[in-house]
Amino acid sequence: MPLDPSTLEQLQTTVRRFVRERLVPLEAQVAREDRIPAEVVQEMRELGLFGLTVPEAYGGLGLNTEEECKVVMELGWTSPAFRSVIGTNNGIGSQGLVMDGTDAQKEYWLPRMASGEVIGSFALTEPDAGSDAGSVRTRADRQGDGFVINGRKRYITNAPHAQLFTVFARTDQDAPGSRGVSAFLVPADSKGLSLGKPDKKMGQQGAHVCDVVFEDVFVPADALLGGEAALHKGFLTAMKTLDRGRLHISALAVGCAQRLIEEATRYAAERQQFGQAIGEFQLVQAMLADSATEAYAAQTMVLDAARRRDEGTDNEALASRSKLFATEMVGRVADRAVQIFGGAGYMEEYGIERFYRDVRLFRLYEGTSQIQQLIIAKALLKNIK
Amino acid sequence: MKVLVAIKRVIDYNVKVRVKADNSDVDLTNVKMAVNPFCEIAIEEAVRLKESGQATEVVAVAVGPSQCQEQLRTALALGADRAILVETEGFPQPLSVAKLLKGVYDQEQPGLVIFGKQSIDADNNQTGQMFAALAGLGQGTFASKVEIAGDTVNVTREVDGGLQTVALKAPAVVTTDLRLNEPRYASLPNIMKAKKKPLDTLTPEALGVEVKATIETLRVEPPAERQGGIKVDSVEALVDKLKNEAKVI
Ligand SMILES: Cc1cc2nc3c(=O)[nH]c(=O)nc-3n(C[C@H](O)[C@H](O)[C@H](O)COP(=O)(O)OP(=O)(O)OC[C@H]3O[C@@H](n4cnc5c(N)ncnc54)[C@H](O)[C@@H]3O)c2cc1C
To answer: Whole-angstrom Cα distance, residue A100 to residue A90?
Structure first.
């Protein structure tokens, strides 16, 4: 059930205050130390941020997609590394369970994820399976009353902190491509599961990514996400999960763009050259106007796509359209922000170059821009037939 | 002990305040409103008293138009058990607010009433004091520490040149200062649960209070624009200017 407007407004206001009063002042420190202070993560738990999308029955807020997007736009106002902490529990780390888990699986894991006691990660990508995610080679073979998993997953967000992995592994070795893949709920402390070294990344310091290695990891039969009925159907779960996640990322991109636009506008109003504020120059104004217009377009688009998803009336890949547009948009906005800041935009001290690097990721994960284009075109062509 | 907390809806402290073109008042159209920061401290203190077992129930009360329900919901989300709105047209002046709250006090019979020391809109700093006088209660204003011991309320007050500790016999009135506590953020689940907590509405008539204006606002003006600074070339010149121009030393 959707929230009444004033309750939603209060949620947004509270997150906005928390973001601006608590998180924004820590941005430079988090980037420098590549670490989010434990007490801040605890505050995020207490605030309830880990359970935005977990149903109320399992201790979360049960926000619908539109509400989630509105809250995530607030989170976008600060370094995306903070969002990453709660990102997987609200998105790819939990939504597979929410959508396709058995009651027992949901009852066990979801309340722990909503509270933030358990961090969930989503392990699909492999060294040789990126955009072509259906080609995963990690395998799960039946053994006794369970499965044995072998393989390696790559670039797994929050893996160094996770207690639970949703792992996509091939259960039918003869089935081609994405058919024959199943999803498993694998606790991080399973015997044979190990982590690679945290990857050194271009941006989003404070958020951590690494390989996850499975060497004869045994899981009982009830670790199969969705139970026996879902055997070989894991790829569908992955795609549904990513579809909602794309709107989440789109909303995040909008939030980051809004922050960058505000920073750039402030700077343009203050910085003097040729005896006047640079914001008086029409060439600078054009950059601001283009950024504001594109951000508004993306914001409107994301919220519309989210509403359509909630209504169940989207069969046109609107989430992919939103992600394609919003993430490319924030790339342009960040680039213009650097331009408006001039040399200062290139300097660490001002934080603009940090955002520029941070937002670059949005065009890559949860489906690259090219993959979104493929999905959008495929939906168009399918609807014609 | 039951605690009554009075809260006010004011312009959010982050908003840049603008004066209406006719200088009659501050412009409130489409402006973000929030709980007065000192009232947030009052709610926080009441909730802490309850969490530590010193208070049994926390009731939040606001006087003003129906939109004040939003701020009462915030109080409920922060931990108040129930809320009361005394619904009026616009915001009555401090004396009327104090009288209305006295009406609520008579109905509720709390052991402690907590106010913010002032609201950041008009900075009057008088509603708590007026209320204490009307109700005939002891008051500990500008509190930086509050402790309940039996039916005594010990209040540390921030006074010029230091701290003063007073013992008030309950029922008593406390007004909060900035250092009393650091208010929490309402958790998102509690914001959702606040919807289900009781919020009652009363009218001035029901409380037998006539709302009257005793102060007339003649003119509201924004503060003077800050003048651009100047550079002085020596310490002597600075001292001279501070002494003779600014006349601050
Ligand atoms: C920081 C970070 C965090 C991540 N977190 C996770 C996570 O938590 N879980 C997880 O499972 N994965 C995660 N990923 C992996 C991410 O989803 C993949 O990196 C992404 O899907 C792209 O795959 P790839 O890196 O193998 O690139 P490739 O698939 O090798 O793509 C390289 C280029 O080729 C293009 N390309 C590929 N196929 C086509 C095609 N058919 N048509 C046109 N162009 C094509 C791509 O668009 C891209 O430009 C993360 C990645 C990063 C960088």
So the answer is: 15
Contacts of B34 in chain A (CB under 8 A): 13
| DSSP secondary structure, A98-121, as one string | HHH--HHHHHHHHHHHHHTSS-EE
Contact A14 B186 (CB under 8 A): yes
* B contacts of A59 (beta carbons < 8 Å): 189
DSSP 8-class letter at B226? P
For the segment B116-150, what is each residue's pLDDT rounded down to a tens digit? 999 999 899 999 999 999 999 999 999 999 999 99
To the query of whether residue A21 is one of the catalytic residues in this protein, the response is no
Residue pLDDT, tens place only, A288-298: 999 999 999 99
Task: Give the helix/strand (H/E) hosting B58.
Answer: strand B57-64
- CATH class belonging to A5-115: mainly alpha
Residue recorded with tokens 């402006």: B31
Question: Which residue from A51, A134, A136, A66 is spatially nearest to A98, judged by alpha carbons?
Answer: A51
Per-residue pLDDT of A110-148, as tens digits, reads 999 999 999 999 999 999 999 999 999 999 999 999 999
CATH 3.10.330.20 applies to domain A120-232: no
Cα separation of A137 and A140, whole Å? Answer: 10
Outline which parts of chain A fall under CATH 1.20.140.10. 236-384
Residue environment code for A256-288, b if the CB has 16+ CB neighbours within 10 A, otherwise e: bbbbbbebbbebbeebeeeeeebbeeeebeebb
CATH class belonging to A236-384: mainly alpha
The whole-angstrom separation of Cα A333 and Cα A250 is 14
Q: Dihedrals φ, ψ of A4, to 5°?
A: -70, 155
ipTM attached to this prediction: 0.88
3-class secondary-structure state, position B129: helix
Please enumerate in sequence order all residues whose Cβ is within 8 A of that of A1, keeping only pairs 6 or more positions apart, or say none.
Answer: none
CA–CA dist B235, B237 (Å, integer): 5
- How far lies A79's CA from each of A8, A253, A254, in Å? 23, 11, 13
pLDDT of residue A129: 96
| Beta-sheet strand order (sheet of B152-159) | B162-169, B152-159, B138-149, B172-176, B112-116, B2-7, B57-64, B82-87, B199-202
**Which residue of A7, A17, A47 is in closest CB contact with B187?**
A47
Q: Do A10 and B77 touch (CB under 8 A)?
A: yes
Measure Cα distances from B202 to B77, B88, B207, B208 in Å. 21, 9, 8, 11
A72, A121 in Cβ contact below 8 A?
Answer: no
